[in-house]
Amino acid sequence: MNIKLCMGSSCFARGNAEYLSFLEKYIKDNNLSVTVELSGCRCENCCCDGPNIIVDGKKYNKVDITKIKK
User: Fold this and answer.
1) DSSP secondary structure string, 17-53?
2) Within 13 Å of residue 11, how many CA atoms lie on the same side as its CB?
3) Whole-number percent of the chain with pLDDT over 90
4) From CA 1, how far away is CA 21, in angstroms rounded?
5) Is the pTM of this model over 0.70?
6) Residue 9: in which H helix or E strand, if any?
7) Which helix (DSSP H) or strand (DSSP E) does residue 5 occupy?
């Protein structure tokens, strides 16, 4: 699984900073570092729909912590 968080300033300020910390901890606590690749990406040019996260090539907009947990 590949998870990319938009690190553009808008997405980062809207929650991706918090979600990055959550995902890093979740991956570590559940020993998923072998199967999950977590990375950042540049602005996805969807700032008004952010924060944006891409999971295995599928873009998710307006994510929140509930959506991240799913």
Assistant:
1) HHHHHHHHHHHHHTT-TTT-EEEEE---S-GGG-S-E
2) 26
3) 80
4) 18
5) yes
6) helix 9-11
7) strand 2-6
